[in-house]
Amino acid sequence: MLITRWRGAAVVAVAISTSLAATAPGPAAARPSPGPSVSVARGRTQPVFSYQDAIREHLMVQTPVDSDGDGAKDRVAVDVIRPRETERGLKVPVIMLASPYNDTVGRGFEAERKAYAADGSPATFPLFYDNYFVPRGYAVVDVDVTGTGRSDGCPTVGGKADVAAATSAIDWLSGRATARRADGSEVKATWSSGRTGMIGHSYEGTLANAVAGTGVEGLETIVPISGISSWYDFARTNGAKHWNGFGPWLAGSLDSDPPAKCQAVRDRLAAGEDDATGDYNDYWKERDYLTPPAPQVSKVRASVFAVHDLSDYNVRIDQLANWWTPLAERGVPRKLWLGRYGHTDPFDWPGRRARWVDTVHRWFDHWLYGIRNGIMDEPRVDLQSGPTTWTTRADWPARTSPVSLRPKPDGSPALRPATGTSTGTFTDLKLSEADLTADPATARPGRLAFVTPPLRTGVRLSGTPTVDLRVRLDKPTSNLTALLVDYGAAERIDWARNDPLNGIHDGLRGLAEESCHGESTATDDACYKKTANVTVHGPSEVIARGWMDAQNRHSVTTPEPLTPGASYRVTWRTLPNDYRIEPGHRLGLVLAGTDADFLYFEDPTGAKVTVDLTASRVIVPVAARRG
Hints:
By secondary structure, the protein is of the alpha+beta class. The chain is 17% helix and 33% strand. The strands form nine sheets. An eleven-stranded mixed sheet has the order 9-3-4-8-5-10-11-14-15-16-17, sandwiched between helices. Strands 18, 19, 20, 24, 31, 35 and 36 form a seven-stranded antiparallel sheet that branches. It is globular and about 80 Å long.
């Protein structure tokens, strides 16, 4: 029974019963109080603790790994802020952020960094979590990932040492690991209730996934925002490369130490990635949180509140979908927000900031304090359906029916099988998506394009399309790209626009006006710039993308070159989406070779690809009218 595993949802946690203010009359009510206790109203913890007077401490937690090979086990830097009342017996849960960004690129829309007082104690915690949650009876614990900030060792880009940084901090909070102050004295987390939640964006959300995949005791919930579930699928898709040299580059950009210190580690990262082939190997397996023996989704015992953008092409949406599906299969308690921006944080989504803060507040209250506030009774999914419109859904993807679109020789996908023996051909060239999708009625050597007549009714795609082709090549392999395109003018989020000088990225523009969430000090304020949508009125939008190196059609570990002239069936999944095609728009299918916008480091093979149109199709998951 799942109720024994996810016990926090079933009963009010012991932690809150020991820390809430007593309400019973009699002698107990008259006892001197050491200070305020956790207060709850309207299903939410209330801000009764002083942020100004909070305890701030810096310490080093021992880990079991030696990432830099210097013969000493790494220690990771941990910064803590907690209510002063925890010095007098109050036990509180923890909101943890494990991050590699604290002293380099910074965090959030405003790229905040940590700062320290003259005595070495933390004076500035990035983002709003400390300002908001400490007054409400939480500790916030900020961990520098191995090799970053003040931590020992070297970054391993999703490897075991990265994961050990956060798991060791959780072990310390639960009394299973050792921490020391700058003077060498040991410090114990006697104030911790033993219940921790992790939150964070991008690499931070990735670590939340990975740490949950270890099944570490004490991690009760995670809120991964734009998190990776498989680093191979981040850098490659079906053998086609999005990146060369990614691990060494990222490790170097996050490490502020002299380059020589971790050069040997970066060299090992480069060798492990095997850019020459793009194939899956043991290096990627260590960084695959979906399958054994790495941290794996089957070990997740924490609840999950996931957030992702459908137009995030940094950490693509399949990272969420491939994590979400096995969570659902195992009945893990979960919630999901899906936006339409690029690689963003929901705190910065226009018009949603207050709702986000309140929702994540109630989520942590429920899972870390055991408060029955109805958060799990609400619709599971919040979905952005347009630039300014949001809907709620029972789940994601929606219940759908598979619709086969078969390319016909007259240049249109049809909802019925094509007849005859028609074929189409294209050459594996490296072309931009603007070139690939422009004017689908015009023949071009680097693509095949098909388009429907205008749709009579709107259609909602929800989930992951599948491309199923019968092809012949005149060379041993070719890169293959499939694009589903909404041909129809509309106002859409301009997620691809990035203009740092004007404060624009991923479909958002920073504004001068701020909103404040929590309490402030002279060195750490709770106020952040609001944002506005950046939109574009365009004639079309690619709504699903998928790539394949044809020689990896059966396996990403073992390539199988094709025999020129022979016929092969090649099947792959595109990225998922949830998208409504409006009446009057047309649905297009583009088949091509090397996508210059996403297969950045691939060279086209120049192969001639012949597609048997009668034996090829794309299968689209179409939601019911009320899906």
